[in-house]
Amino acid sequence: MRRSAAPAWLALALGLITTGAAHAMSLPDAIALARKSNPTLAQRQDELAAAQARVAQANAGRMPTVTLVGQVGVGSADLGGFFGIGRSTIHPEQATVEVRQPLFAGGAINAAIDRARAARAAAREDVAASRAELTTGVADAYVAVVDARERVHLIDAEAVQVQTFVDQARQRFRSGEVPRTDLSEAEARLAELRAGQAEAQANVTRAEAHFQSVVGQAADQLDPPKAPALTVASLDEATAAAERGNPALLSAQANLQAADAAVRGAEAGRYPTLALTGNAGTVRDQFFPGYRNTGYAVGIEGRWTLFSGGLVSGQIDEARANRAAAEAGLRAARDKVRDAVVSAWQDVLVAQSLVQAARDQAEAAGQALDSVTQEVRVGQKGMLDLLTAERESLAARSTLISAQGNAVVAAYRLNSLVDTAP
Fold first, then answer.
1. Quick one: which of 83, 98, 136, 179 is 20 to 30 A from 90 by CA?
2. Got the DSSP string for 106-165?
3. Domain locations in the chain?
4. d(C-alpha 310, C-alpha 343), whole Å
């Protein structure tokens, strides 16, 4: 009994290891993996980080600046006998601290901050849009692999069945029970299936390669995909939800806000600026040996550009043109989102109807195949009828696979347009 315990525990451990290694990937798993490794999404996230940094830079425009300037050197001075000083070596030193606090900039600082914040909001929505687009892309790639593999299984099983028909037809042809036509039809159908097997396997290879490029991991073992629950119950609700929270639309709105701020920033160039300044410094050996000067000053500095050769006017015109373009982009984004939602909603409805119709068709084709098979056995129908029924049954099952996959992708696409959850 002791000798048998060790192999039992070993078998259990190996079984657990095998079970863990054979863990299948689900569609939500694939989406999570893609979000961790997708380069496009990573690029959008890095752009968001850069936009956040630009907000910090814009906020710095309100803060005082402190500048320290120092200088140390060696040189020679010759005062030509003035003050009793001739040629001598000097060691000039200078240290200055300057403080500057903006008081008024014509609205340029606030405009820059608003523009940076709007750009950050647009970048954040671009991340959400990329995430939603990636989710739909992963669903499409996942379904493509599962569908391609199921088609291979269907065609392989069909080829085995038709091979049996061919063998039976050859035997019956030799015995004179069936004409040469039946045998030729069966062989032609088998050759057609062999070609279909090669094409189906090629489709699997292509689908798996695309899956790996999207998800970042090989499609080893995949669970059957399931359509997610819809987050809206009607087309009106879907349209309203998309107009409230679709990331592409929100990004266009943020871009318009940034363009508004850019116009205000450009117009600020027409106004004067005021700043509180202060400096303190010390100087030694600046003009002649032994020279020293230490002092400080506090004041207000004003600056007003009265003529710029058309530079400010050109900047304003450019900003206004960019704002008009952003406004047009918002209208285009709103129309595009609305059209996409309507299309996605109709795709969901059609897909649901097609799944039921394809299921009924596959069931009816299967029943017809069973009936024809029985009739062929009793001699009421020939081999051609059986091959036709087999082809129709295979086509019906293939249609059902496509319909089920399309229903999954359509549901993910609709949710990605109206659901802004991360």
1. 98
2. TTHHHHHHHHHHHHHHHHHHHHHHHHHHHHHHHHHHHHHHHHHHHHHHHHHHHHHHHHHH
3. 26-67+105-273+308-418
4. 49
* pLDDT single digits (tens) 31-51: 999 999 899 999 999 999 999
Tokens of 172: 């019956």
* Burial grade of 185 (CB within 10 A; 0-12, 13-18, 19 or more): buried
| The pLDDT of residue 12 | 40
In the chain, % helix, strand, coil (3-state, to 5) comes to: 70, 15, 15
Contact 182, 383 (CB under 8 A): yes
CA dist., res. 258 & res. 112, Å (int): 9
Q: Identify the segments of the chain with pLDDT beneath 70.
A: 1-22, 77-86, 177-178, 287-289, 376, 378-380, 382-384, 420-422
- 296 beta partners: 280
pLDDT digits (tens, 9 = 90+) for 205-259: 999 999 999 998 898 899 989 888 888 899 999 999 999 989 999 999 999 999 9
Tokens of 399: 């249609």
Which pLDDT value is given to residue 108?
93
Whether the full predicted model's pTM is greater than 0.85, yes or no, is no
The pLDDT assigned to 174 comes to 78
Full DSSP string of 22-45: TPPBPHHHHHHHHHHH-HHHHHHH
Specify the pLDDT at position 6. 41
Q: What one-character-per-residue DSSP string does 368-389 give?
A: HHHHHHHHHHTTSS-HHHHHHH
Q: CATH assignment of 26-67+105-273+308-418, given 1.10.1780.10, 1.10.340.30, 3.90.76.10, 1.20.1600.10?
A: 1.20.1600.10
Q: How far is CA 300 from each of CA 63, 78, 101, 273, rounded to the nearest angstrom?
A: 16, 38, 9, 10
3-state DSSP call for residue 13? helix
Confirm if 330 and 252 have CB atoms less than 8 A apart: yes
Whole-angstrom Cα distance, residue 98 to residue 297? 9
CB atoms within 10 A of CB 412: 26
Name the helix (H) or strand (E) containing 68.
Answer: strand 65-72
